[in-house]
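Exercise 7. Predict the structure of NAD(P)-dependent oxidoreductase from Hoeflea ulvae.
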Amino acid sequence: MKKLVLTGAAGRLGSYLREPLSRLCDELVSTDLAEDLGKLYPGESYVKADLQDLDAMVALLEGADMVVHFGAVCDEAPFETLLGPNFIGAYNIWEAAHRNGLRRVVYASSIHAVGMHKKTDFIGIDAPHRPDTFYGLAKCFAEDLASLYWDKRGLESVCMRILSCAQVSNPRAVGSWLSYDDLIHMVERAIDTPITGFSVVYGVSNNDRAPVDNSKAQHLGYRPKDNAEQFAKEIYAEAGPLDPQDPGNTHHGGPFAAVELGNSGVALLNLKEEGNAKS
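Solution. The predicted structure, encoded as tokens:
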């Protein structure tokens, strides 16, 4: 592949993807709002650009084969805060990809697009949208945008509904964990699968207690290897009994399903500080 573009390259997940993506193409253009990324990998360049600027996105995607879109505000926030980067930014990426004749958008969607479904329902990739927050609503918008651009303009998309890509630090993550190795594997399959059309896949590892069903995404060849069960005994003992009436314990969105609209969900996840890996 000649050229890939990675948005959100300064973020926690984007930083993990830079090196493996640089090995898949002659030229990797990483972009974010940070002033720089520090050390660049062979074939990688950095362009500071705002997702809300359509002209900047059109220029950024010129000559690219695909764009891997991880740029966004990555938490629940007031709608006005998310409107620019998460809603308009998504439109700008798909529109810029279309104008430049890209083949595919690989998109970091989220379980929060379906976060109000109950975990006991074991939902598949065809579950109807049930966002848990404005953040989840933005993911629904981008997924529908991806579907529209495939149906009307022939632009392929793979929407990866990531569950929990961080260290296992809470009971929910025993089922929802996506390891960094499995994240990289999923993105690679989203890029190298010959034909995807409009596809959805859940970003979750091979956990014994995974609450979602990827059986209708087999064509992508995503076969996760890691399993969070190794952490279960310690995590459950540490957490103690969970309230079965708390939507944060019973719904796919976890704390995002319980917070008031506009309030942070990440603040309730008990995430461990890891820094920006490989940045």
